[in-house]
């Protein structure tokens, strides 16, 4: 039973560049979440999908951020025109909703550093 | 905002029980208490959750007070590998997201 995987694990980019992260959820999990975590803080919710539908987006998710889950399996999170403030750990979690409550399982995260 | 308050840090001797408290005085009747932990530079790891009754699994025990305004996570025999930040989360009924606070940093020492 493989867990949630994320790629890349680390990304260093220059300000203004675009970056894309990938998340592969646990097989057959129908929900997929993205969170962001800055140093010393707990993770903050960004967005989530049920199958391929994006059901909620946080106001933290500016216009420069876009997330997709085209076939209801893996998901991508793209950040356009990166800024230094985007430096953070980006976490993906997945869950299987068969009734309340669901349990979210997290991946190892992608650590982004914007220079 | 997170609906829980936790001590910023705690210490525990290896082999002893670690008891991590959490206050959630505004919890509603249908809201669950979840515990996650995060070891340095890794993603959060699910530990346990509960509604009203005490719960136990292979990792920990969760004790919820009768009025549900507070809970305690118990690691029965702490090891050095249990050193981590522990998050207590009240899963709000009408939301699917987890709202994390800043957690308790548990340091297990030899």
- The overall average pLDDT of chain B, rounded, is 93
Question: Biggest β-sheet of chain B, characterized?
Answer: 5 strands, mixed
Strand-residue fraction of chain A? over 45%
Report low-confidence residues of chain A grouped into runs of 5 or more. none
The end-to-end distance of chain A, rounded to whole angstroms, is 37 Å
Please give the number of β-strands of chain A.
11
Strand-residue proportion of chain B: over 45%
Largest interface: A-B, 26 and 21 residues
Question: What order do the SSEs of chain A take from the amino end to the carboxyl end, as H and E?
Answer: EEEEEEEEEEE
Specify the structural class of chain A: mainly beta
Q: Order of strands across the widest beta sheet of chain B?
A: 1-9-8-3-4
Instruction: Sketch the major β-sheet of chain A.
Output: 7 strands, mixed
The first-to-last residue Cα distance of chain B is 36 Å
Describe the structure.
- The complex is a heterodimer of chains A (115) and B (110).
- With 115 residues, chain A is mainly β.
- In chain A, 0% of the residues lie in helices and 49% in strands.
- In chain A, strands 2, 4, 5, 6, 9, 10 and 11 form a 7-stranded mixed sheet that branches. Chain A has a 4-stranded antiparallel sheet with strand order 1-3-8-7, with no helix packed on it.
- Chain A is globular, with a radius of gyration of 14 Å.
- The mean pLDDT of chain A is 93.
- Helix content of chain B is 0%, strand content 45%.
- The A-B interface holds A 4, 31, 33, 35, 40-45, 48, 55-56, 58, 91, 93, 101-109, 111 and B 2, 32, 34, 36, 41-46, 49, 87, 91, 96-103.
């Amino acid at each position: 039973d493989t867990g949630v995987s994320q790629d890349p694990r680390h990304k260093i980019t220059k300000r203004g560049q675009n970056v894309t992260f990938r998340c592969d959820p646990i097989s057959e999990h129908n929900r997929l979440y993205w969170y962001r975590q800055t140093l010393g803080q707990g993770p903050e919710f960004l967005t989530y999908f049920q199958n391929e539908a994006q059901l909620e987006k946080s106001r933290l998710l500016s216009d420069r951020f876009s997330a997709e889950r085209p076939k209801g399996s893996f998901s991508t999170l793209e950040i356009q025109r990166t800024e230094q403030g985007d430096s953070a750990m980006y976490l993906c979690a997945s869950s299987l909703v068969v009734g309340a409550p669901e349990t979210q399982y997290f991946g190892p995260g992608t650590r982004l550093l914007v220079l | 905002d997170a609906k829980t308050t936790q001590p910023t840090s705690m210490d525990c001797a290896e082999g002893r029980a670690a008891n991590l408290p959490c206050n959630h005085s505004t919890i509603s009747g249908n809201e669950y208490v979840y515990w996650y932990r995060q070891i340095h530079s890794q993603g959060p790891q699910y530990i346990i959750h509960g509604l009203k009754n005490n719960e136990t699994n292979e990792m920990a025990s969760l004790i919820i007070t009768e009025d549900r305004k507070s809970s305690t996570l118990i690691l029965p025999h702490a090891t050095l590998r249990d050193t981590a930040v522990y998050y207590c989360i009240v899963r709000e009924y009408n939301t699917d997201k987890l709202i994390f606070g800043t957690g308790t940093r548990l340091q297990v020492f030899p």
